[in-house]
Amino acid sequence: MRVPRPILDMALADGLPAPVAGLDEVGRGPWAGPLVAAAVILPEDAAWPAVDDSKRLSPKRRAALARQILETAAVGIAVIEVAEIDRLGLGPANDAAMARAVAALPQRPAGLIVDGRRVVPGLNLPARGVPGGDGKVAAIAAASIVAKVHRDDLMDTLNQRYPGYGWDTNRGYGTRAHADALDRLGVTPEHRRCFAPIAARIAARLAAKAASAARP
User: Fold this and answer.
1) Nearest Cα to Cα of residue 77 among 29, 27, 33, 36
2) How many other C-beta atoms are found inside a 10 Å radius of the C-beta of residue 97?
3) Which phi-psi region, left, alpha or beta, contains residue 89 (left: φ > 0; alpha: ψ -120 to 50)?
4) Distance CA 69, CA 149 (A)
């Protein structure tokens, strides 16, 4: 089994005032389900040699690390539901998720280090974006782990409510099996109508219904 490579330290956060919160989100791309962001301030005296980009970790390892992070670090989590994603649009919804995760922290950070090139506007905190930061910076990696585990748990619950779409495995992403289920079962309230594949299926069903109603 592959051993996760260690993330060295918070060196990329040098120059930001402490405490620094790492910030990441999970769920931008799926066709269904919420968007989840997490902000994490790691304790200064803790070493985190096993944290890594959540995508590189096994589900079991992610869950164990998420528990450890929640028990020992300052953590804020925010969930943006599908209706709000559709209302705001994906970009603003992503910004809202990150801003709410920071606001949910039990202590206010003095600086932010964010996965990606773009920092969240309007937070009035010194911030730095790090492309690929969830594989480089411990606090961002910790945030990615917490957000991923939290969203996966939510998708497991939604999978029980809407069986047949495979959300316990595809997590709402646009896999072939998910697309086939959409064509067979239709669109649920948890599908993002602002996404083209969902909007196209809704339009096709409405057109078919209208055509059927127009037949003599």
Assistant:
1) 36
2) 29
3) left
4) 12
Q: Hey, is 26 helix, strand or coil?
A: strand
d(CA 99, CA 113): 13
Cis status, amide bond into 106, omega within 30 of 0: no
CA dist 38 and 78 (Å) reads: 6
Token pair 């994490």 in the structure block, residue: 40
DSSP 20: E
| Full pLDDT tens readout for the chain, 216 residues | 344 444 445 667 788 999 999 999 999 999 999 999 999 999 886 666 577 778 888 999 999 999 999 999 999 999 999 999 999 999 999 999 999 999 999 999 999 999 998 888 889 999 999 999 998 898 999 999 999 999 999 999 999 999 999 999 999 999 999 999 999 999 999 999 999 999 999 999 888 777 767 767
